[in-house]
Amino acid sequence: MPEPSTAIASPVPRRSSVSIIRASVLKFVGLLTGVFLLAGYLVLYLAHDLDRNEETESAFYTQKAVRALEKSIAATVKDYAFWGDAYKHLHTRIDTDWAYVRQNVGPTLYADFGFRGIFVVDAADHTAYSVVDGQLSSVDASTWLKHGLPDLLTQARAGAEAETPTTLFANIGGRPALVGAAAITPGTDPTVTPDDGPPSVLIFVDILGDDRLGTLGKDYGVDELRIATAAELNGPSVFVLGENGVAGSLHWNPPKPGERLLGLGLPLIGIAALLVCLMAWAILRRTTASARALDASYQSLQTSQSALAISEARFRDVVEASSDWIWEIDHAGRFTYLSERFESVTGLTRPEWLGAPMDQLLCTELGTVTQWLSIPNRRPDISVQCRYVDTQGQERITRLSARAMADQGFRGTATDVTEEVESRRRIEFLSQHDSLTGLPNRTRLREFLDGKLKTQPTAERPLVMLSLDLDRFKSVNDLLGHAAGDAVLNEISGRLANRVRHGDLVARIGGDEFVLILTDLKGQDEVEMLCQRLIESIESPIRIGEQEVFVGASIGIAMAPTDATEATELLRYADIALYEAKSGGRNTWRFYAGDMNSKIVERRRLESDLRFAIKHGELRLHFQPRFRIADGKMVGAEALVRWQHPERGLIPPDTFIPIAEETGLILALSNWVMETAFQYASSWPDQLFVSVNLSPSEFKRGSLVERVQRAVQQSRIEPGRVELEITENVMLDDAPGALEIMRTLKRLGIRIAMDDFGTGYSSLSYLRTFPFDGLKIDRSFLSRLTATEDDRPVIEAIVGLGHALSLTVTAEGIETPEHLELLRSVLCDEGQGYFLSRPLDMEGFSALIRVTETTGET
Ligand code: C2E
Ligand code: CA
Ligand code: CA
Question: How far is the CA of 514 from the centre of ligand 2 (A)?
Fold first, then answer.
C-alpha cells in the first residue's frame, strides 16, 4: 500500500468567481471614474486657462487702448502748443479773437476731439484762457485739476526745450479724465523770438465717459469698456488710471470661452459617465450570474476534493495517533504494509517483517491467523486475541481486527492488550483468591462446592465439608500485631494445604475461618483421623521472630448427601457443628447432628421476631456518608439497616438480612428501607444522593421496578438522587432478567452501582454489559493493604477500568489516612469508611448536614 502522501497540499483558499468578477468590475468602474474625473478636471483646467488667457489679452488691449488715448491727446496738445501762432496769440498776449472766435484753439477741439476743458496757464501760473464744453469761460484750471496742476505745469515746462508734452490721469468731479499739457513755444517758426520768462502751458482735458470708453474698447476688441463700479473694483478685469488709481478704474467684460466650454463639456462628460455606469451594471449582472454558476460547479468539485484530503489527513492522524498498528497482507498472508507504530509497539523492525507471513508473527488461541481469517462468514466486527513474542522474548497479547480487501488480501488493526489481559487475569485471580494467603476465597469455594455437589456424592463416597476456625488467634493479633497475625495465617494456610490431597480444596473465608472440601474420605473414621492430624499440625508451635506462638483450631463437619445436598445448607450445618465444637472445649471437632437444629429453632425465632420487628417499627436506618475524594465534599450517604431488638439490642444487618432473604421478608424490609430512606433524603440539600442496598432475591421476585417507583413517588424525591447498590449475584442468577430490570430502572432516572466489586466472579464482563453508573470496590481490598502493598496496583487497575467504562468509582472501608492518600493518588472518585465517618443514626446525620451547611465544609 502506498504511504499516504506526507505533505498534503493544504488547499489554497480559492476566491469565488463572483468575487473576482465583482472585484474586476469594481476596478474597471474605478478606472473609468478616474478617467472621467480626469477629463472633468482637464475641462475645468482648460476652461480656466482659456478664461485667464482671454483675461490677460483683454487687459493688454485695454492698456493698449488707454495708451493710444494718451498718445493721441499728447500728439494733439503738441500740435497746438509748439506752434509760433499759438505762442504769439496765447503766450505773448491772450488773443481770444484769434483763439476762440477764429477757432484756432477753441470750440472745434470740443466738437472734433471731445476735449471738455481747454486751458492756458500763463508764466505767472494764472489761468489766462479757458474753454469749457466748447464755450469761452472763466473757470480756473486749478478748480479742475486741483493739486495736480503745479506738477503738471512743471513737467510741461520741463518738456519745452525738447517739445515733449505730458499727460496724466486726474479725477475731475468724480469722473476720470485724461489731461494733456505742453509748454507753448514758437516751435519752428523763425518769425517769433521767444522771451526769457517761463512759457505758458496749454492744457487739454478729456473727461472719459462710458460712451467714449465703449467706443474706444470696441476699437481694440475690448467688450464694454467702462468705469468700474465700487463692486467691480476688487474683481478681475480692472485697469487702474493714474497714480494709485486716483483717477478711478476701468472695467470691461472679457470674453469667457472657458465658461462656455464648461457649460457644454461637463454635461457631456456626466452623460457619458452615466452611460458607462449603466453598462457596467448590466455587465456585472450578467457576469455575476454566470460566475455563480461557475462557482457552484467549482464548489462541488472542491467539496469532493477537500473531503478526500480531509479523509486522507484523518487517516494519517489516526494511524499516527493511535496506539494500534495497522497492517495489510496479500492473498498469501504476507505483510504488504505495516504502519510506523508497528515498530514502537512490538519493538520489531518493519523491513524485516514486510513480505514475511503473518502467521510467522502471530497465532490465535485456536490456530493460525490465516485460519481465522478464512472462517466462512466471519463477522468483520469481531476481533481475535493473538499472541506473539517480542524482541525481549516476552509474550505479548494483541487484539486483531481484519477486513477483506478487494484483491483477496486483508487489512486491519492490531491493538496491544497485554496489560489489560494481565490486569484482568490478576483481578480475576484476586477475586477468587485471598491475597494474603493465596488460598481460594469464599467465591471460589462456592464455585468449587457447586461443582462438586453437581457430581452427586453418595453415602459411600461422601462430600465432606470441614469448617475450621482458629482458637486464640485473636490474642495473637492483639498482642503481637497484624504482621504477626498475617504470618500465622500464612503458616497455617500452608500446613492445611499440605494435609489435603490434590483435588481437594482449602479456602479462607474470613479472618481466621477456613473451609475444607474433601471428596475421597471414606467414612467417619477417616474424617476423624484427618481432623486429628489437622488440629495437631495447627497446634505445633509457630516461630514469629524470637517468639513461639501457639494457636489451636475447632472443626465442624457436615457431609453430603447425609446432612444436606445444598451448598448453603451444608455451609450452615458445618457452621453449626463448628459452633458446637467450640462450645465443646475447642481443639476438637464435631459432626453435624440433627439435635444441633436448636440453632435452626433459634433461627426460626429470629425469623418471627423479624416479621414482628418490620411491622412494629423496630428497624432503624443508619446513614454512612460518602465523600468525594478530590475535595472531601460529602456527596451522599448509604442507608444501612439495623434492628433494635427489645432483648438483644442493636442487631447488625449481616445477622438478619440472610434470614429476611430466605423467608421472603426481604421485600417488606426493603420497602421500609426505601420508603424511609427516600423520605428522609428528600429533606436533605439537593446535591446529596441516597443509596440503598438491594438483595439479589429482590430481582427474582418481580415488581422491583414498581416498588422502587412507588417509594420514589411517595417521597417525591428527585430520581436522580437515588442510587441502588446491587451485587454481582443479581446477574449471576438471571442475567437477561436483571438487564431488563436495570434498564427500566435507568429509564426512571435512577442510578445503579455495583457493590462489593472484587469479591465476586469475573466482574468485568458484567460491568461492561450492564448499565452501571458506579462501582464500589469492596472494603477487603483496602483492609489487605495494611499488611502488604500488593493490592495497590490492583486498586489502581480497578479504578482505571472503572474510568474506562465511565463509572464513578467508590472505595469502601477507608479506615486510615493512608488509605485515603492511596485512593487519592490513584484518582479514585469517591469513598466511605470509618476514617471519614461511621454510619450515623438519623439524628447524627442531620447534625452532620447542619454542620456541613453552616460551615460549608465536611
Ligand atoms: P455493604 O453494602 O458493603 O455496606 C457497608 C458495610 O461496611 C456496612 O456494614 C458498614 O458499616 C461497613 N463499613 C463502613 N465503613 C467501614 C470501614 O471503614 N471498615 C469496616 N470494616 N467496615 C465498614 P453494615 O452496616 O454492617 O452492613 C453490612 C451489609 O449488610 C452491607 O454491606 C449490605 O450488604 C447489607 N445491608 C445493610 N443494609 C441493608 C439493607 O437495607 N438492605 C439489604 N438488602 N442489605 C443491607
Ligand atoms: Ca452497600
Ligand atoms: Ca459494599
Answer: 25
Give the Å distance between the CA of 582 and the centre of ligand 3. 30
Q: Measuring from atom 45 of ligand 1, which residue has the nearest CA?
A: 693
Q: Which of 203, 229, 251 is the last residue of a domain?
A: 251
Same domain, 672 and 733: yes
Residue 4 maps to a domain: no
**The ligand 1 atom nearest the CA atom of 776:** 3
The domain that holds 695 is classified in CATH as: 3.20.20.450
**Total domains, the chain:** 5
* CA separation, residue 677 to residues 195, 541, 626, 697, 842 (Å): 158, 51, 15, 20, 10
Q: Mention every residue, 6+ apart, whose C-beta is less than 8 A from residue 61.
A: 220, 221, 222
Given the CA of residue 756, which atom of ligand 1 is nearest to it? Answer: 3
How many C-beta neighbours within 10 Å does residue 796 have? 17
Task: Out of 150-154, 197-201, 322-326, 620-624, give the one with best mean pLDDT.
Answer: 620-624
Query: The cell 494500534 sits on which residue?
Result: 324
Q: Is the CB of 624 under 6 A from ligand 1?
A: yes
185, 303: one domain: no
Q: Do 59 and 161 share a domain, yes or no?
A: yes
Domain range for 35: 17-52+257-320
The pTM (predicted TM-score) of the whole model is 0.42
- Ligand 3 centroid–CA 755 distance in Å is 5
pLDDT at residue 841 is higher than 90: yes
Instruction: Give the helix ranges, DSSP H, for 130-177.
Output: 141-145, 148-158
Q: How far apart are the first and last CA of the chain?
A: 61
Q: Is residue 195 part of a domain?
A: yes
DSSP letter at 101 equals I
Q: How many angstroms separate the alpha carbon of residue 692 from the centre of ligand 2?
A: 7
- Nearest ligand to residue 653 Cα: 1
